[in-house]
Specification:
It catalyses: an acyl phosphate + H2O = a carboxylate + phosphate + H(+). InterPro entries: Acylphosphatase (IPR020456), Acylphosphatase-like_dom (IPR001792), Acylphosphatase-like_dom_sf (IPR036046), Acylphosphatase_CS (IPR017968). GO terms for molecular function: acylphosphatase activity. This is acylphosphatase. The protein is an alpha+beta fold. It has one domain: Alpha-Beta Plaits (2-Layer Sandwich), CATH 3.30.70.100. It contains two helices and five strands. A five-stranded mixed β-sheet has the order 4-1-3-2-5.
């Protein structure tokens, strides 16, 4: 059985207004991950993601390129706090921060 990890991602570039959050949600759900994604007022996108390390690694690779209309300049990945996800299953979009 794979280890479960939680990561906080900050994605910078042209990532708002191009379907990035919707696409990240779809990819995270496809990979069986839990968490949320939101726009940030600074123009970046933030995601808190929890699940098996292999699935999270696959999402991180996807996040480096995003959907076709996006331009990803960099992805910062730090340890996340799984308590912020709570007991909710699945992946969702939350309000801008």
């Amino acid at each position: 059985m794979s280890q479960t990890v939680c990561k906080n991602l900050r994605i910078h570039g042209r990532v708002q207004g191009v379907g990035y959050r919707w696409s990240l949600c779809a990819e995270a759900e496809r990979l069986g991950l839990s968490g949320w994604v939101r726009n940030r007022r600074d123009g970046s996108v933030e995601a808190l993601v929890s699940g098996p390390v292999e699935a999270l690694d696959a999402l991180l690779c996807w996040a480096q390129r995003g959907p076709s209309m996006a331009r990803v300049d960099r992805v910062l990945c730090n340890e996340g706090n799984a308590a912020e996800i709570g007991t909710a299953d699945g992946f969702r979009q939350i309000a801008t921060c």
